[in-house]
Amino acid sequence: MTSESAGRAGSSVAAPGGAGRASGSPDPEALAAAVIGFDRVSKQYRGGRLALDDVTLSLPAGGSLGLVGESGSGKTTCVRLALGLERPTSGELIFNGTAYPAGRARLRSLRRQIGFVLQDPYDSLDPRMTIRDIVTEPLRIHRLPGGRGARGDVLVAGQLAAVGLPGADLRSYPARYSGGGRQRIAIARALISSPSVLVCDEPTSSLDVSVQSQIVNLLLDAGRERDLSMLFVTHDLDLIGRVVDTVAVMYGGRVVETGPAELIRQSPRHPYTKALHDAVPANHPRDRRLARRGAGPLGPGELGPGEPGPGEPGPGDAAEPGADVTDDPGEPGAGPAAGGASLFRPDSCVFASRCPRAQARCHRERPPTIQEDALRSYACFYPI
Amino acid sequence: MTPGQSEQAPALEIADLNVRYGPVHAVRDTCLTVGAGQVVALIGETGSGKSSLALAAARLLPRSAAVTGQVAIAGKEVSGLGGSEFRRVRASLLGCIAQDAMAALNPVVPVGRQIGELFAVHAGMSRPQAAEAAVAALAQVEIRHPAAVARLYPHQLSGGMRQRVMIAMAMALAPPLIVADEPTTALDVSTQAEILALIGELRARMRSGFLWITHDMGVVAELADWAAVMYAGRIVEQGPVDVIFDAPAHPYTEGLLATRRDLRSGAPGAPLFQIPGSPPGPGEEPPGCPFAPRCPRATAICNEVDPSLEPAVGEGGAGLAGGAGSMNGHRVACHHPAADAVGAWAAPAGPAEKPAAKTGDNLGTAGTVAL
């Protein structure tokens, strides 16, 4: 079993014996122990779109959970719920063993515990605010010391140095910085209120290749040093395998497979997980296999007119970090809803219409989540 | 260094191309050839000049850009043509695939009519003929129910479908050259795989050459015959794609390949391989090699003399890329090109092995300079 080695190297050191494993199983104990837990959460947007369909997830203290999936899979909705920007239609969100509070003031205190880094560093930093004001904003919102005045300057300078921007001009504006520099500023802001959880929504997908590694390494270091629990969302299967202990693969608003990152990579059970892996381009021209006749791993599939478009709008649009975010239902996103609810068949497997292994049963019955062992589960009648 | 073996004129020949936006020298002294029917990957990051180069080749740059040098498409010199003259021949010479199909397509015209317009204007077809040809073009890019899709507006299509429509438009008149600017970057990985499969299919049927801009070495591996790597406005290395992957000579190319290899094969939780620092910002032109501040092999000369693009023979003249280098067109702009497959970043002190904190410091210093 490689599950041991799949653990994030630092987490067991930082929290000896304390770092449990994230899980997708509806295990009451796991949920009770979770920093952030989703207990059979569904989210329906106006217009009937079911963005999340009975999702159970848990992020244990000191652990890391990765959500991977394509546009419209529901991963960004998970982020919005975890940040308290939205409320679930049904099911319950759990923070440190208790339900997410309903009141604004108490929700604010919860948000102090959750730092976040969003996809687009060009959108998520207010261009009219100085670096100093951006980084200290969470302190002002949460009425923590250092939000204003000289003490804040020292704090910010230290924070910027920690994210690789030593000596940065505190009175400069985001426009002076490249994408990587902006994402460093966003990380400094996320960490300044000393959160216990860091939520990262595609933090590197808009960055250049050579900058992506730098930012991921920074996040890994920060997580380790501060013993953060991390919820990491990405569409990049290779990346997720490097960053988190446990991966939940999402498709069409459901979690289709959960398990240790390494096992998800090496021996996927769900056909969708395998298809995702197969769609990743080769590392060398001699291994090329996609740009060939009939090579599309999913085939032209059911992507009929009105299917989801790319570039799901992250919560970045509405969600200024720590800013006074209203519980705006927000941009429903370019999820499958754009095309209509037809993709969502409560009485079938969401992946059935594109699945090479699908049989009649998959089209008329919803596969239950099967708990293979303590770490691994999948929702498929005919697993690999 | 013409890579194509066919007697046909190359799809694209660029010689001594320079692009300047005021004081910013975006592309400098660039030569690049796309053989007939060949896919040439133009690799680079933000600000490397790859888009400027491609747009200059397609003559799509605004007037404010100062462009010098020669551009020939399918043997026809187009850099000397006047604006209206070029517009007349453009559609028959080249097609373009943009990254953001939503922005590139007209939102208020059904996609079938947008494609049909090409046939009506440039192939002299009647409206009904053009409409029929448009449906055929959609079928060509493997869109199911093409007649129905032709009546839809861009916003009614998925990202992958819109990109197929873009490809159908680009290839409608079977031009010798197609310029593709990161056409799969915004797509999901499975949609990207479908588009790559489609391009593989179309290549077998048509003779268009592609100038394919990307920053994804995986897409390069899947698609390209030839690869050119840009950095700070220069092509720093180019050659047959196998050679570039097997024996990259420029430390930057090595770093890009190592980043990708490491991402996939590294241990969970281990630091990712990283190239420290960041590229020079627009308008920053330090003397010497632009990659020197980030380069593990840099020496004094690198900070003084900007290396020119030369046949890759390795420093000792006998490396892996050696003898073959000059024959196969592999060229590199580096004072210390890799002479073997070990490369610049494999040294024990390479960033992958460095303690994370130390790498962070590196970054910081480089960051303040370049950001």
What is the average of the pLDDT values of chain A? Answer: 78
User: How many distinct beta strands of chain A?
Assistant: 12
Strand content of chain A: 15-25%
Strand order of the largest sheet of chain B: 6-7-8-3-9-10-12-11
Largest interface: A-B, 82 and 78 residues
* Shape-level CATH architecture of the domain at 12-100 and 174-235 in chain B: 3-Layer(aba) Sandwich
The structural class of chain A is alpha/beta
Helix fraction of chain B, binned, reads 25-40%
Query: Which term fits the overall shape of chain B?
Result: globular
Tally of helical runs of chain B: 13
Question: Helix coverage percent of residues of chain A?
Answer: 25-40%
Major beta sheet of chain B, specifics? 8 strands, mixed
Distance between the termini of chain A: 18 Å
Average of the residue pLDDT scores of chain B = 85
Question: What integer value in Å does the Rg of chain A equal?
Answer: 20 Å
In N-to-C order, the SSE pattern of chain A is HHHEEEHEEHEHHHEHEHEEHHHEE
Q: How many strands, which pairing sense, and closed or not: the largest β-sheet of chain A?
A: 8 strands, mixed
- What is the beta-strand fraction of chain B? 15-25%
Q: Which properties best describe this structure?
A:
heterodimer, A: alpha/beta, eight-stranded mixed sheet, globular, disordered N terminus, B: alpha/beta, Rossmann fold, four-stranded antiparallel sheet, 36% helix
Description of the structure:
The complex is a heterodimer of chains A (384) and B (371). By secondary structure, chain A is of the alpha/beta class. Helix content of chain A is 30%, strand content 17%. Chain A is built from 13 helices and twelve strands. In chain A, strands 6-7-8-3-9-10-12-11 form an eight-stranded mixed β-sheet, sandwiched between helices. In chain A, helix 6 (131-141) packs parallel to helix 8. Chain A is globular and about 65 Å long. Chain B is of the alpha/beta class. Chain B is 36% helix and 19% strand. Chain B has helices spanning 50-57, 83-93, 101-104, 111-122, 127-140, 146-150, 159-171, 189-205, 217-223, 241-246, 251-265, 322-328, 356-370; strands at 12-21, 24-34, 39-43, 65-73, 76-77, 94-97, 177-181, 209-214, 226-231, 234-240, 310-311, 331-332. Chain B is globular, with a radius of gyration of 22 Å. Mean pLDDT of chain B is 85; it is low at 1-6, 315-325 and 347-371. At the A-B interface, helix 2, helix 8, helix 9, helix 10 and helix 12 of A face helix 7, helix 8, helix 9, helix 10 and helix 11 of B.
